[in-house]
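INTERNAL AUDIT FORM
Audit reference: QA-55
Scope: verify that the stored structure record matches its stored sequence.
Auditor: D.O.
Record contents follow.
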Amino acid sequence: MKKVMTIAGSDSSAGAGIQADIKTFSALGVYGTTVITTLTAQNTSTISDVLVVPSKFFKNQLVTTLEDIKPDVIKIGVLYSKSIINIVKNILKNYKNPIVVDPVLYSGTGIKLLDDDAYEQFQKEIIPMSYVITPNLKEAEFISKIRILNKLDMTRAASAIFRLGASNIIIKGGHNGTRDRKVIDFLFKEQSNEPQQIVHVRLKIGETHGTGCNFSAAIASFLAKGYDISESFALANSYVYEALKNSMKIGNGVLVSNPLYRMYDNSEKYKVLIELQDSVTTLEKMTNFFQLIPETKTNFVYSIEKPKNFDDVAGVLGRLTNLGISIRTPNVIQFGSSIHVSNALLAATKFNSLFRSAINIRNNQNIIKICENNFRCSKYSRSKEPEESKKIEGSSIKWGVSEAFRKEPNAELVYHDGDLGKEPMIILFGYNPKDVIDKIKIVLQGYVNN
């Protein structure tokens, strides 16, 4: 496994600093080690105190970690003091792998994170060590002493930073004070005359916390995994843009970027797929279930928590069909594969957010009688559907289920008696696939015994 060391400060709110770095390393599949320079007492609004780690202890962290775990890349963030800068310089002077420098001069909330008397040493000792340095616009202006108003100014600033010894420079455009509708990030390479640009539409989320740390940690991760600087720039940019789109409001101050969004998403979706697959297998083995499959066949769905759309709901690709007295499935479960039953579930969750699973079965008088004796049921009439709803694929089921829940908000089963060319149908809802299976067993027991 590739390894990345971060030398940076600790953020008690866990939005930036080493905490953000570790989240990013974990999300991108590299092993992260940490050497802490400062401890901050902070939240999403401010930093109330900064404790600089004693030089002797800082040195012990760095030396002890390096003696055993050899990083493929080192990322440097907050250094704060001259003594820490000296230690980093002396210990890493013979380090041959890439060093990513995130020149953190101030926190996102405006608190100084580098001593006034330490900047000159930072410029002289740390910048020349960098394989790539990743300033935002304000940091690039401070380092280069050039006011950046346009692309020409950006190029001049990069030239000035090159003269300080940097090999590659990424200037991030997110802190553009004009708040342009587009954000442009630039990669300047020493051996290239024209910078690489990546353009994104500016997200309407205001200021965020931790984005710079996520980005430099992502650059370090992709470099460690063997990507070149151009590839790492593109991959890190895309990754952080998604982390920004999934930013979280965790306090009263600025939003916090979410570098673990994909891990959370993938983990939950994996569990959904496994649980639904197990329950489909149970249905396949269930004696007499074929008797509940309608003419239009059956689908069985399960969603992540609080699904937003069709892509958050997994279903059986191609539906469950009856083959004589047995059940046949394509044995493929995937997200976004069921339109009608997924739409029914999405409509139901608006009334009961605990419902995450649903299945459609036959509707006849005997089955309805069993259901009404065992479950809270609600009915809607397709003949009353508005014309505008009929014109949109998938809207009929959403309209009908919503109508049924308005009449009976505590319903766990919704049905209709069909319409011209439309088969009558029952949809059973549950908290999970096992809950739905248990309800199916109740229906089958009553139906077969009749």
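Auditor finding: record pair retrieved intact. The two ends are 61 Å apart (CA to CA).
Action required: none
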